[in-house]
């Protein structure tokens, strides 16, 4: 279950902090879920790379209702190709492009739907879309990752100072985001209850005082 509305109890704080420091989170608006993933990931040709995707939800994950889709786009205007799904259990859609190189490593009950792409090839470059829906949330959330495949490792740089500064800023941002998500989840649940009450009121209005359908004036 969730330790606080909007934050998965199993979602590691370190992972969230890492995403805050090094990536841009893709967060939909409205009543959609918050899904977070790195905006860009670099991978060395021939190696394995983890494409991380985590999400926040106001509700406990139930496998019978939870759904996940991972799709691939070769270019911005190209159609999306479904290659991995979760419906009660994980299901790989074996595209010729990936073969059996896709390995699901996430755990939806811990708000993690990441996967590893093994033996990365140059033609694997493109956009990877992570779609998550966890009812009673009514709208699915989405995050996208742009994968860049490198033919040689980039030069290493001393980033000690950047890490220290980033950790301080990231810690503050994590607290702010936590508060905002709690507030948003409270509002979302309240709105869904109001919508449900309105629907019940409309249904009751269609019956007379004795609970029988109003046949109207003949």
TrEMBL record:
<keyword id="KW-0812">Transmembrane</keyword>
<dbReference type="InterPro" id="IPR036179">
    <property type="entry name" value="Ig-like_dom_sf"/>
</dbReference>
<keyword id="KW-0472">Membrane</keyword>
<protein>
    <submittedName>
        <fullName>SCN2B protein</fullName>
    </submittedName>
</protein>
<feature type="domain" description="Ig-like">
    <location>
        <begin position="28"/>
        <end position="146"/>
    </location>
</feature>
<feature type="signal peptide">
    <location>
        <begin position="1"/>
        <end position="25"/>
    </location>
</feature>
<dbReference type="InterPro" id="IPR013783">
    <property type="entry name" value="Ig-like_fold"/>
</dbReference>
<dbReference type="InterPro" id="IPR007110">
    <property type="entry name" value="Ig-like_dom"/>
</dbReference>
<keyword id="KW-0732">Signal</keyword>
<dbReference type="GO" id="GO:0005886">
    <property type="term" value="C:plasma membrane"/>
</dbReference>
<keyword id="KW-1015">Disulfide bond</keyword>
<dbReference type="InterPro" id="IPR000920">
    <property type="entry name" value="Myelin_P0-rel"/>
</dbReference>
<feature type="region of interest" description="Disordered">
    <location>
        <begin position="192"/>
        <end position="218"/>
    </location>
</feature>
<keyword id="KW-0393">Immunoglobulin domain</keyword>
<dbReference type="Pfam" id="PF07686">
    <property type="entry name" value="V-set"/>
</dbReference>
<feature type="transmembrane region" description="Helical">
    <location>
        <begin position="161"/>
        <end position="183"/>
    </location>
</feature>
<dbReference type="InterPro" id="IPR013106">
    <property type="entry name" value="Ig_V-set"/>
</dbReference>
<dbReference type="InterPro" id="IPR003599">
    <property type="entry name" value="Ig_sub"/>
</dbReference>
<feature type="compositionally biased region" description="Basic and acidic residues">
    <location>
        <begin position="195"/>
        <end position="218"/>
    </location>
</feature>
<keyword id="KW-1133">Transmembrane helix</keyword>
<keyword id="KW-0325">Glycoprotein</keyword>
């Amino acid at each position: 279950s969730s330790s606080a509305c909007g934050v998965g109890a199993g979602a590691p704080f370190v992972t969230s902090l890492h995403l805050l420091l090094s990536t841009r989170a893709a967060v939909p608006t409205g009543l959609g879920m918050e899904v977070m993933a790195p905006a860009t990931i670099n991978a060395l040709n021939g190696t394995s790379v983890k494409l991380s995707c985590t999400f926040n939800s106001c509700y406990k994950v139930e496998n019978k209702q939870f759904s996940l889709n991972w799709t691939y786009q070769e270019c911005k205007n190209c159609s999306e190709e479904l290659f991995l799904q979760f419906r009660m259990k994980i299901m790989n859609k074996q595209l010729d492009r990936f073969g059996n190189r896709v390995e699901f490593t996430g755990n939806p009950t811990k708000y993690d739907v990441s996967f590893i792409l093994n033996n990365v090839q140059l033609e694997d470059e493109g956009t990877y879309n992570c779609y998550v829906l966890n009812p009673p949330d009514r709208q699915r959330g989405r995050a996208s990752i742009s994968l860049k495949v490198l033919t040689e490792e980039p030069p290493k740089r001393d980033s000690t100072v950047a890490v220290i500064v980033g950790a301080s800023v990231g810690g503050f941002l994590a607290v702010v985001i936590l508060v905002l998500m709690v507030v948003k989840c409270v509002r979302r649940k309240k709105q869904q209850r109001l919508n449900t009450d309105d629907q019940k009121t409309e249904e009751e209005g269609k019956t007379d005082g004795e609970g029988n359908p109003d046949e109207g004036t003949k």
